[in-house]
Amino acid sequence: MEIAGIAVVDVDQNTAYHLEAIQTPSARKSTLEDGQSIVDHYANIIVSRSAQLSKLSTILAVDAYFTKRKFIDPICEKTDLNIVGRLREDANLRYLYNGRQTGSKGRPKQYAGKINVKQIDKRRVTQEYEDDDVRIHAAVVNSVGLKRNVKLCYVEFLNTTGEVNTTKMFFSTDIIMTGLAILCAYRARFQMEFNFRDSKQFTGLQNSQARSKKKIHFHVNAALTTASIGKCIQRNGLKRSLRLTYSISDLTTELFNHNLLKRILSIYPIDANIKINDNVIRLVLDYGKIAA
Asked: Is 182 in the same domain as 251?
């Protein structure tokens, strides 16, 4: 069984909150419409929910699998969302021609040659950002495979001595987006993978034995939502400027200790004055947590 997940990412806090999981149709007994591919199915998921998604963000970050024209075209044509993704290492890209037109008959010149992705022309793909870890070059280019102009984000990942260790190419359908913003959006997308990890380990994502489509849909969304609620509990009452390391394991331990403490106080005639004993109660609730 496979599910496609949609999550909203808080870039400032670098964490993802689950929105919805949708089951992928069976490959053996397909429930897809006639002539529809699995990529069309994924595109329809986003298009049908675009009104709600656009209220949260206009950036849709997807992994390299979705860098396909059949996925990107419907979303760009039918929604207000801009897609951020990763290009293949052998992507077919062309420089745009920005020189003077000859004025002669025929179609104006649009492109200025194919991009050698192994050795880009840094006069045309200019550097926008650099720190100790990355060097970012960006330019508006034409993608032959996607049949559209995109904002290219060419990233050189540096080692400890400042030398280029490896390179990756990212893109955005929003051509005014900066290279750094593209990289940050794509990196933030990975945070949703921790939702799946936490749900598998702590909220029973894989523990259902249901066979009904509706029951499976409810179970996987309940498990993923519970993990996100756990993050909200840990964030509750804290300033947004404060960075927090989320641990569903610690939350599980605290809730167990809280339940055990309430059980003890309910059995024995102990007057639990919360204000006076707040520090002592906190010691009990934190007992057994992972050391920071």
From this structure: no
Q: What is the pLDDT of residues 41-91, one digit of tens each?
A: 899 999 999 999 999 999 999 999 999 999 999 999 999 999 999 999 999
Are residues 62 and 161 both part of a single domain?
yes
User: What span, in angstroms and rounded, lies between the C-alpha atoms of 191 and 8?
Assistant: 10
If you average pLDDT over each of 20-24, 248-252, 270-274, which comes out highest? 20-24
Per the structure, how many domains does the chain have?
A: 2
Q: What is the pLDDT of residue 70?
A: 93
Full residue range of the structural domain in which residue 278 is found: 247-292
Total Cβ atoms within 10 A of residue 236: 7
- The answer to whether residues 62 and 145 belong to one domain is yes
